[in-house]
Amino acid sequence: MKIKLILPLALTLLLSACGYTEPGGEYMVTTLALGEEPTGYRVILQAVDIKKGEQNGLPDTFTVEGRGKDVDDALEDAERGFSKGVALGHLNLIVLSDKVRAAGIRQVLEVCKGREVNLSAALAVCKDEKALLESGSPSAGTQLSSLIKQNYKRQGYGGHTALYEISTALLVNGGEFALPNIAEGPKVEGMLFYKEGQPQTLLDEGQSRAYAERMKGGAVG
Questions:
Q1: φ and ψ at 168, to 5 degrees?
Q2: Rounded to 10 degrees, what is the CA torsion of 63, 64, 68, 73?
Q3: Residue of 73, 109, 152 lying closest to 144 (CA atoms)
Q4: Which tens digits make up the pLDDT trace of 66-115?
Q5: How far is CA 78 from CA 81, 88, 127, in A?
Q6: What is the pLDDT of residue 137?
Q7: Each residue's pLDDT tens digit, 123-166
Q8: Could you give phi then psi for residue 174, rounded to 5 degrees?
Q9: Does the pLDDT at position 14 exceed 70?
Q10: How many Å apart are CA 48 and CA 28, to the nearest integer?
Q11: CA distances (Å), 12 to each of 16, 58, 62, in order?
């Protein structure tokens, strides 16, 4: 897969752009995934161990998950699973299960803002966030970010889903927005449309392009 070939360069550029340092040996978290459970939420953090990855020339990635009655509790539970500190300032992708509803979306957005996550971090959706991030491919979250950007350039949909844009849509657009759907492959297959922050309809590629075109210059698309 071409995207694997550009991965080391992409990660290097990411670290350089953010002025990355590793104070106290912190792990850099690049992806946060959120799923709903009967008693609350599950958060999965995908992190990069730069020093360990230097041994084979590729970033060494791993996932840690946590559970809690709300998103903040679940995130704190996940953070306790790391052997050293966790840095969320480089988070560039938030993946939601397609079952996560408005309350969970609002919580994860608030938690990310409270933790000073980059407001340009993108949101996407998938059927099984655990399987997606634990697929075994190196640095899956970083690859997914590139995959989403490539799809937007080629297919014309799936962009403009940054933290600040979705937060704005929840406030002033009646909770109407759409997120790129990551299917098995992985690949982008249409977008999941939300109304009042609730998942509604999975748009196919044609519908996704039409929606993105309609939303140009307006809210999120």
A1: -65, -40
A2: -100
A3: 152
A4: 999 999 999 999 999 998 888 888 888 999 999 999 999 999 999 999 98
A5: 5, 12, 21
A6: 56
A7: 999 999 988 887 655 456 678 889 999 999 999 999 999 999 99
A8: 65, 20
A9: no
A10: 5
A11: 6, 10, 18
Instruction: Count Cβ atoms below 10 Å from residue 38 Cβ, excluding itself.
Output: 4
Q: One-letter amino acid identity for 97?
A: S
Whether the CB-CB separation of 39 and 21 falls below 8 Å is answered with no
Cβ-proximal residues to 163 (8 Å cutoff; 6+ apart), any chain: 94, 109, 112, 113, 117, 118, 119, 120, 121, 122, 123
φ/ψ of 71, rounded to 5, equals -65, -40
What whole-number distance in Å separates Cα of residue 191 and Cα of residue 212? Answer: 10
pTM above 0.90, yes or no: no
Q: Does residue 172 sit in helix, strand or coil?
A: helix
Q: Please, which pLDDT band fits residue 6 given cuts at 50, 70 and 90? A: very low
